[in-house]
Write a sequence for this structure.
């Protein structure tokens, strides 16, 4: 198997641990908590489908439909990861009402473009395709998806509101780590597509987010469970 999948396996373990910790501890019902759990589930699904695609890409040609199906599902979920992180970090520094209809439509249009580009790739070969010998290839659309991922990374940073209240420095530190790790990951994986790093960097970003931003022990008294 030419793909290096050990980082994805580590990402699955980290994400499952975080989901378990989230379920075990009491959390204040809030927009940021809902976005955190949503982001964690998307990262888990993206990593799991990526592991499956690492094997399905080498199935015989008679399974071409299923090879495309698994890759399309993985790419759709995987490209939701930077969107989910953007929404999560936005929710940690903004109220729900701050996410206006205009902003919602902007995000939805970009997600819709990614969905259509990926879903139609078995016919257009725009994002990925298999040649006549069954070998997996990236199309020009993959570069577009990488650019959109970078766009959401920088959009995340631009949306931070400078606040003097508790949590601003922690948020800034986590986002800087997230930005640096993912820019490095995108650069490495663009030139070395066999090295699976996306799930690992996402899992690490979730881990730091949980420790510094979502840690329930900061808000909940352990013996009584009170806020």
């Amino acid at each position: 198997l030419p793909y290096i999948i050990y980082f994805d396996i580590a990402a699955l373990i980290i994400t499952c641990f975080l989901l378990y910790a989230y379920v075990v501890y009491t959390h204040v019902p809030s927009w940021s908590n809902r976005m955190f759990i949503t982001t964690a589930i998307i990262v888990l699904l993206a990593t799991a489908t990526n592991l499956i695609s690492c094997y399905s890409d080498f199935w015989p040609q008679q399974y071409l439909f299923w090879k495309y199906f698994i890759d399309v599902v993985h790419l759709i979920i995987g490209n939701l990861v930077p969107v989910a992180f953007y929404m999560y970090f936005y929710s940690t520094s903004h109220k729900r009402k701050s996410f206006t209809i205009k902003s919602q439509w902007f995000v939805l249009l970009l997600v819709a473009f990614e969905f259509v580009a990926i879903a139609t790739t078995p016919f257009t070969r725009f994002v990925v395709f298999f040649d006549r010998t069954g070998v997996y290839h990236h199309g020009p659309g993959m570069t577009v998806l990488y650019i959109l991922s970078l766009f959401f990374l920088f959009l995340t940073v631009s949306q931070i509101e400078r606040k003097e209240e508790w949590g601003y420095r922690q948020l800034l530190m986590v986002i800087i780590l997230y930005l640096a790790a993912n820019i490095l990951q995108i650069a490495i994986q663009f030139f070395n597509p066999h090295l699976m790093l996306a799930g690992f960097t996402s899992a690490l970003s979730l881990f730091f987010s949980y420790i510094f931003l979502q840690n329930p022990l900061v808000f909940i008294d352990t013996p009584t469970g009170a806020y």
Observations:
- DSSP finds ten helices and two strands in the chain.
- The CA atoms of residues 133 and 155 lie 40 Å apart.
- The two ends are 50 Å apart (CA to CA).
- The beta strands are 128-130, 136-138.
